[in-house]
Amino acid sequence: MSAIEAGARAPGSLWRQEIRATLALAWPMVLTNLGQTAMTATDVMMMGRLGADTLASGALGANLYFMPLIFGLGLMLATSPMIATELGRNRHSVRDLRRTVRQGLWLAILICIPIWIVLWHGEAILLAMGQEPALAHQAGIYLRWLEWAVLPFYGYIILRSFISALERPGWALVIVFVAVACNVFFNWVFMFGNLGVSAMGIAGSGLATSLSSALMFFGMVAVVMLEPKFRRYRLFGRFWRSDWPRFKGLLRLGLPIAGLLAFEVTIFNVAALLMGLIDADSLAAHAIAIQIASVTFMVPLGLNQAVTVRVGLAHGAGNPAGVSRAGWTAYVIGVSFMALMGLVMILWPHLLIGAFIDLGDPANARVIALAVSFLVFAALFQIFDGAQAVAAGMLRGLHDTKVPMIYAAIGYWGVGLPLGVVLAFHFGLHGVGIWMGLALGLAVVAAMLLARWLRRDRIASPLTFGR
User: Fold this and answer.
1) Distance between CA 461 and CA 128 in Å, rounded?
2) How far is CA 171 from the centre of its chain?
3) Mutual orientation of helices 320-347 and 365-380 as an angle, nearest 10°?
4) What's the pTM value of the predicted model, to 2 decimals?
5) Helix, strand, coil proportions of the chain in percent (round to 5)?
6) Cβ-based neighbour number of residue 359 at 10 Å
7) Are 337 and 302 in contact (CB under 8 A)?
């Protein structure tokens, strides 16, 4: 009997229970992700008020920032399946959860050192990539203030993984929305010079995000130290004690996750850099379109995080039928939602674009037209984007991360990026060609990950813990 047939014969009440459990876990994660994206979105919106050149500089800086950030994020995300599987095996585990969180925080500190060095030299890196000197200079200033957001962000992600595995993600939602409000306030103060503070321009945006990220981390620290359900784990007790087998286990699981995320996200970062080689209007339009697409992506990303926990719990308990139900429930919800969002992008593009740029200003006419054309292709790949995001989380719950990383490398860098470059620069399609390549790359990865999930009974990874 196939896994799909086994899942289909499960009592309807089990499917309804799984849907409720998935949604209960996913919706705070989705809103938390939206809150984190809202922080970036407010930065982009407020940069747009300073002019198209500032927006373009911010886009360059943000894309360079996200390249190393995402790789480190993949390492941090390894804590989630490790904690979930341990809880599935032993619901009352305390010591192993504490050690996993502790080694995750150690890993965050170590990975930040090279990231800080890279971002400090952001202007030189952008110039070496052939970016316009004036834009690269402003982006470099932005990065030197923004880079200090990395470590508190990683700390927040690790603690969020901990409370999410315990199926209490609501605190992360509260904290991130407080941080978003503070980020808007800090931008208003430092970017534009209010409350007696001198206007810092784009540098003020980097400072605002760093302060907001610190607020997120310390807010989460307060929660895990004060909330009774979390306090008993004493996460920061004996923080100096090493657990090298567990540290190596995090690396073993996290490096492929980091690779997958790096291959996926950096293709969009490289797309922005390629847009900068076309012209500033294309780069500004791309920044708007990708920000809109990023907002919709937060739903399958939340489902990715939720299904990692749900599959991990079932996997740890040795329940293959539960694994099947958890995976397919999240997959259907994610793909259906993204299909709906694609329709919205096609029908009301100007309404979405108007949140980022003044539609009535004639100087913005070309940026608006380009953004509309990019949104058409963003709409087309919504389904593929949702499918690959949720499928990656399904496999991650099984500790299956190495092969999905290889699939990401093939789809994004072996197919999507080369095709986008050829269409953009050889066939003269410019920005539209780049977006066509992105869409095909996502489709290829989504198909391969789904095929991998269908074969999960033959490739499921054993339970692995650092001991």
Assistant:
1) 42
2) 19
3) 150
4) 0.74
5) 85, 0, 15
6) 13
7) no
Angle formed at CA 72 by CA 252 and CA 314, multiple of 5 degrees: 50
Q: Given this model, what pLDDT does residue 465 score?
A: 41
Residue 329 CA to residue 311 CA, distance in Å, equals: 11
Q: With contact defined as beta carbons under 8 Å apart, do 429 and 50 qualify? A: no
Of 432, 379, 367, nearest to 44 by C-alpha is: 367
Are the CB atoms for 80 and 218 separated by under 8 Å?
no
> DSSP string covering 391-453, please?
HHHHHHHTT--HHHHHHHIIIIIIIIHHHHHIIIIISS-HHHHHHHHHHHHHHHHHHHHHHHH
**Taking Cα atoms as reference points, which of 286, 266, 269 lies closest to residue 433?**
286
Tell me: pLDDT of 186 over 50. yes
Residue written as tokens 């391969």? 448
pLDDT tens digit sequence for 370-382: 888 888 888 887 8
Rounded CA separation 357/46 (Å): 10
Residues above pLDDT 70, as percent of the chain: 94
Rounded-to-integer distance, Cα 380 and Cα 263, Å? 20
pLDDT band at 466 (very low <50, low <70, confident <90, very high): very low
**DSSP secondary structure string for all residues of 92-117:** T--HHHHHHHHHHHHHHHHHHHHHHH
Contacts (Cβ under 8 Å, ≥6 apart) of 317? 88, 89
Write the pLDDT tens digit of every residue in 401-457: 889 999 999 999 999 999 999 998 888 788 888 989 988 999 999 999 999 999 888
Neighbours of 455 (CB within 10 A): 10
Residue 459: the pLDDT is 63
Q: Kindly report the average pLDDT of the chain as a whole number.
A: 85
Q: Which two tokens stand for residue 348?
A: 């009301």
CA–CA gap between residue 159 and residue 171 (Å, rounded) = 10
Banded pLDDT at 350 (limits 50, 70, 90) = confident
Select the more confidently predicted residue: 391 or 37: 391
